[in-house]
Amino acid sequence: MSEEREFRVIIPKEEYQIIEFKQEDFPGIGVINLSLVKFEPKDVFSWHCSIMIDFENFIENGMPSNEDVLKAEKFEDYLDENIKGKNKEKPNALFLGRITWNKTRELIWRVFEPELTNEFLNKIVEEENYPFQFEYRIDDDIDWKLAEWLLKSITEE
Q: With contact defined as beta carbons under 8 Å apart, do 112 and 133 qualify?
């Protein structure tokens, strides 16, 4: 028998911190939502949604060209709007961050109802309605283990 639990969730205002790192000789840059470090109850948004975009045009060190950055930001806004859903008071997801590294950009959300996000992303794929090739995963991650590296990277600075 499943246990029904109720939570009172206060959606935090998004606040960002930029991190820079080097991995495999490539520079990386992350924009992380600081407000999720201390966010509770984490198990309400227990699903980890990761979208990996492959850039087509890059400058040195695998960083995207200005043209690709502008195209990506427009696509990211569209994804964010739809993954969070129409109700801003009770969003279906919280944006955790984005990491740009070695010709890719990873976008990460913490999700409440994964089916809604999966349906939306499947529709984009089926309709081929995207400016870049991308892959996505939605993993059950009640302990936020998949978010750990990002959240620790900003608390250590």
A: no
